Amino acid sequence: MSDLPPLVLPAPAKLNRMLHITGRRADGYHELQTLFQFLDHGDTLTLAPRDDAELSLTPALEGVADADNLILRAARRLREATGCRRGADLHLLKRLPMGGGLGGGSSDAATALIGLNRLWGLGLSLEALAAVGLALGADVPVFVHGHAAWAEGVGERLTPVDLDTPWFVVVHPGVAVSTPAVFQAPQLTRDTAPITMARALQGGTASWRNDCEATVRERYPEVASALDWLSDRAPAMLTGTGACVFARLEHETDAEALLAEMPKRWQAFKARGCNRSPLHDALDR
Ligand SMILES: C[C@@](CO)(OP(=O)(O)O)[C@H](O)COP(=O)(O)OP(=O)(O)OC[C@H]1O[C@@H](n2ccc(N)nc2=O)[C@H](O)[C@@H]1O
Ligand SMILES: Nc1ncnc2c1ncn2[C@@H]1O[C@H](COP(=O)(O)OP(=O)(O)O)[C@@H](O)[C@H]1O
Fold this sequence. Notes:
The protein is an alpha+beta fold. The protein has 2 domains: 155 residues, Ribosomal Protein S5, domain 2; 108 residues, GHMP kinase, C-terminal domain (Alpha-Beta Plaits), CATH 3.30.70.890. 32% of the residues lie in helices and 28% in strands. The protein has 10 helices and 10 strands. Strands 1, 2, 3, 4, 5, 6, 7, 8, 9 and 10 form a 10-stranded mixed beta sheet that branches. Helix 1 runs parallel beside helix 2, helix 2 crosses helix 3 and helix 7 crosses helix 8. The radius of gyration is 19 Å and the shape is globular. Bound molecules: 4-diphosphocytidyl-2-C-methyl-D-erythritol 2-phosphate and adenosine-5'-diphosphate. It catalyses: 4-CDP-2-C-methyl-D-erythritol + ATP = 4-CDP-2-C-methyl-D-erythritol 2-phosphate + ADP + H(+).
C-alpha cells in the first residue's frame, strides 16, 4: 500500500441562473447561452492511491453500469491522454439527485480529473484537464475551471463572471427529466436572439429565464407544481433541463422558513451560491 493519504474532495452542484437556446447545430446539438454558478452543496469523492493499475469505485451507482460511470470514464480518459498506468481506489458519497440538472455527474468527473491529476503527479494544466473532460460532457469544463461563468456554444466556451451569491432552496420534484427528450421536443424554443454577456448581466436576475421551462412544465406536471409553489413565495426557475427547480432568497433564515413549509413529497435542500467552486477552495487548503 502507498503511504500517501487519501484525497477527500467536493464535487459541487451547479445551477443555470439563466439559459437561452439560440440555435441548433448540424449534429443536432443545441447552441446555448447560460450562466453557471456553483452551490456549496454536492457529492464527495475520496481518492486513494494503489500500488497496482486497478481502478475501483465504490459503491456502485444505481442504474449506472461501471463502464458508463463518468468518474471511471474520466479516470480512463486521463490515463489514455497521459500514458499513466497507475491505479486508484475511489469512493463516492452521492448527495445530488441524478439527472436533476444540477450537473452531478459532470462535477464528479471534473473532481476525478483534478484529484487524479494530483494523486498521480501528472502536472496537467486546468486547460488540458478541461479538454479531456469536454469529451465526457459539455458541463465538465466549467467544473474543472472552477469559476462561475457565462457559457456559449454547447456550454464549453467559458468567460468567468462574478454573480450575486444569494441563498437558494433547490427542490427535486421527484420525476426524472430526459435531457435528450427535452432537446428533441418540437415545441422547444430554439431561436432566442443571441445577446452579449454584458447585456445578460445588466438585465439582472429579474430578467433571467430558462428556455427549457415551458417544455418541461408541459411534459412534467410535478415540475410545474413545484415551480408554481416556489414562485408564490420567491423568484423561482428551472436549472438545466430539470427536473430540479430553485428559489432565490436573500437570507439563510428565509431559506430555512421556505423549507419548513414545503410539501413533504418533494426532496429539497438549501445552499449558498458561490462564484469559486468549493472544489478549488478545498484544493487550496
Ligand atoms: C443543457 C444542460 C445545461 O447545463 O443541461 P443539464 O444536463 O445540466 O440539465 C447541459 O449542458 C447538458 O449537458 P449534458 O447533460 O452533458 O448533456 P449530454 O448528455 O451531452 O446530452 C444529452 C443529449 O441532449 C441533447 N443536447 C445536449 C446538450 C446540448 N447543448 N444540446 C443538445 O441537443 C443531445 O441530444 C444529447 O445527446
Ligand atoms: N457519477 C455519476 N453521477 C451521476 N450521474 C452519472 C454518473 N455517471 C454517469 N451518470 C449518468 O449521467 C446522467 C446525468 O447525470 P447528472 O449529471 O447527475 O444530471 P444532469 O446532467 O441532469 O445535471 C445520469 O442520469 C446517469 O445516467
